[in-house]
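Q: Convert this sequence to structure tokens.
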Amino acid sequence: MDNQKKDQIKKSGRKPKIDPAKHRYTISLNDKENDRFLSLFEKSGMKVMAHFITACMFDKAIRTVKIDMNAVEYHTRLTNLYSQFRSVGVNYNQVVKILYRNFSEKKASAYLYKLENQTSELAKLCREIIDLTLEFEKKYLQK
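A:
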């Protein structure tokens, strides 16, 4: 009877690890060191602090990712501005078609002259935006 019970023992719970980590160490940090340690841990992107500590101790590759929110915001606004430029171009084509369809040649030419002046100012603004973007990339987005 006892032999049957031993054979029927259910294996439940967690499977035992092949090489369990059973050695523990403690360290003490002052406030300044702790702040520095926590900032490095946050930059690394690791989720487990123990893995981060072992990576630091054994010179494993530690990845730090820094996200510049100003660059992200600048890129978002630049993308929105680009979409507005595209919509201006579509509207420009529609206005030219409507001018030639609804007005005489002389009147349409007068309106187109004004439209061309505004378009040249818009092109200058576009060049300035491109220059500012290149300057921003050189200063702040260096790899």
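Residues 69-141 form one domain.
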